[in-house]
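To assess whether ligand presence alters the predicted conformation, the chain was also submitted together with zinc ion. Input:
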Amino acid sequence: MTRPPRGGESSAPATWAEHAFRVLAARGHRAGGARAAVIEMLADSGGCLTARELERQLAGRARPVGIATIYRALAALEDAGLVHAVDLGGAERHFELVHDDGSHHHHVVCDRCGSKIAFSDPELERAIAAIGERLGAEVEAHDVVLHGECRRCAGRS
Ligand SMILES: [Zn+2]
Ligand SMILES: [Zn+2]
Ligand SMILES: [Zn+2]
């Protein structure tokens, strides 16, 4: 689920990673080396990763992190509202960074080759907000995933 910005809240500019370390510390998690590595890798990559992809990327660095540790770290981050999981149709969920200002992206997923294209679109966001207003609903989050064939699979390359 993707949440829009919370109105009237001002936060000092901090990177997502700094914010994540602060929030987890406030929740009583100690900043272990493995968890810190997961947070830093997520921040470096900008999110959009499955636990297995994180494991592969971390394996390329100085210290590999076990998959169980990665799942635990992601669960703690999800619990704290620092990441959200999106279902892009594959076996594994993708984890996205949750930014304080509500900035986020959505995806087009190719159902043939599994490639995913991220996009953000202010007009789409305005349209979603307008739908909520029209229906008199308090819309707090939304999921948007477009499915189809990518340019290459559709033979348009
Ligand atoms: Zn993404
Ligand atoms: Zn494709
Ligand atoms: Zn959106």
